[in-house]
Write a structure and sequence with these properties.
single chain, 313 residues, alpha/beta, 6-stranded mixed β-sheet, 13 helices, globular
Amino acid sequence: MALRIPHWRPTAPLQRVSLPWLEAAGVELACLRLDLVDPLLSGNKWFKLEPNLQQAMAAGAPGVISLGGAHSNHLHALAAAGQRFGFACVGLLRGEPQQTPTIDDLQRMGMHLHWLGYGGYRARHQADFWMPWLARYPNFQVVGEGGLGLMGAQGCSALVAMAEAQLAEIGWPDFDAWWLAAGTGTTLAGVALAEQRRMLFGAMAVPGSHGVASQVATLLDEAGVAGRRYQLIEAARGGFARLDAPLRQFIHDTEQASAVPLEPVYTGKALMALRDFCESAQLVRGSRLIFIHTGGLQGRRALMGADAGYTQV
């Protein structure tokens, strides 16, 4: 049976955030709370998935197949969409079989899982990688790792209008720049598609060697846009999904001061990078920024333990 996706266009509130280091730098910040979009289809993940699901529906695909790790926010959102809208999902996983809170959720939500090992997962970039999987799951829609791809970026372009529509509500006539985490760079590229004048700062949650810069450039080239203003900033703090004591303390202090929940893989590191920017006076006093909260709070559970504060599905 071909999948069917209803017309669902969620929105997220734009909220002012006040923190001591922002005030000291003379910087105003508002947060686009994508974490509040939905309990399961939260963050930027739905916006990257939705165009792919619409294409799958148009093609009569019976399901969707994608890739990710044992804590993948992307696969978690895909499995939740499959459960909610009634279509089959397949997840190809990096590494050897293990049980994590995310894997437990994927299984409960009905996603079919296949562990590829590490060598098998590295082969995902080879031209013939998908052939055996599409033979096993005929006509399934393939979605790139983390939602990477032009369709995912185009879905995220809606975030610009979403934030602009709420500026008057927070008393801002305008703002100067965007700040967000970058994993694959898809969300940053999506915002850049719709943003023609403001600066974008992407705090990279992965080391620069992972190719975020080339992925963003490729997506913008595929979209046929040029002259977008963006800067990528190293924010991986020793590697992807590494949580050290200073980051843990920063997340705790920020949540206590602002009541905005963070996670250590993307949002925590991105906001910490903004603090470092402010403390080194790299932003003009009086600057107004919008921070895109990309969700991913389900991923807190494995790294933050008792401090996670996230309920399993």
